[in-house]
Amino acid sequence: MVQLGLVGLGKMGFNMRERIRRAGHEVVGYDRNPEVTDADSLADMVGRLSAPRVVWVMVPSGDITRQTIADLGDLLEAGDLVIDGGNSRFTDDKINAEALDAKGIGYLDCGVSGGVWGLENGYGLMVGGEPEHVERAVPIFDALRPEGPREQGFAHAGPVGAGHFAKMVHNGIEYGLMQAYAEGFELLEASELVQDVPATIKAWQRGTVVRSWLLDLLVRALESDPELDDLRGHVEDSGEGRWTVEEAINHAVPAPVISAALFARFASRQDDSPAMRAVAALRNQFGGHSVQVAGPSSGSGSTQG
């Protein structure tokens, strides 16, 4: 059994705590929501952990993550380890790692994929950092990843920053896949020949070259709302698609599909369309992301991704 401090018990962090506990490990979680937290404060959480400590940060990317890691740097001791499992930009990782290293604290960045389904299915993990730090956290990674061969759900992608870079590209690909399914849905709906669009898409689930988990989620969404009329085609982006396109430009790598998918999301905020309703439904299905319902009211609740 290993012990872990987990900061951030939102949709993903809450389920990650449960999955790690199911594997027989001890988790002390901290969240500002008193209904889900195990500790009264960040300092209280750290105080409940035995040295050398491992703390996983699972909060929204940006200033919140940076401040949380800075606060942990003041609370932890030499020999402890911090893992950033949020959707941070990879360029933040070197800064965080160097600040913690000056205090003798290790740092790993971990891209996490699995959304609200990770509790039962496991999470795909992409890690960046020093090998000795990765090895130390392997029991936690093994608890979180899907059952089966480790290499099919976990990768030590490279040095600090590699995990979040890999997750950034993963999310860029995700943008493209969702957009392709969405455009296919809109074309089927526009046709006078195809009279049962949900049944047609459901028929793609077995034996076809386009079958995937995202397709399964689209089928699930269509079963509850066959024309997706309950949603507006308004789709936000978490930032990782933008970063992927920026890096494609920086490395002179052509990425027309990912770029077009990102721009389609921008367009969705100006004009409603069946395709963007499908993308909104997919994001809600796999990650519990917020949606805007048709009419004057809008959906609520969101996570990373």
UniProtKB/TrEMBL annotation:
Q: What is the protein name given in its UniProt record? A: Phosphogluconate dehydrogenase (NAD(+)-dependent, decarboxylating)
- Please state which protein family the record places this protein in: Belongs to the 6-phosphogluconate dehydrogenase family.
Q: What SUPFAM superfamilies would the database entry show?
A: 6-phosphogluconate dehydrogenase C-terminal domain-like (SSF48179), NAD(P)-binding Rossmann-fold domains (SSF51735)
Q: What class of enzyme is it?
A: oxidoreductase
User: What InterPro entries does the entry give?
Assistant: 6-PGluconate_DH-like_C_sf, 6DGDH_YqeC, 6PGD_dom2, 6PGDH_C, 6PGDH_NADP-bd, 6PGdom_BS, NAD(P)-bd_dom_sf, Pgluconate_DH
* Origin superkingdom: Bacteria
Name of the encoding gene = gnd
Q: Where is the 6-phosphogluconate dehydrogenase C-terminal domain?
A: 163-297
Q: What is its EC number?
A: 1.1.1.343
Ordered alphabetically, the record's keywords are:
Gluconate utilization, Oxidoreductase
- Molecular function as annotated in GO: oxidoreductase activity
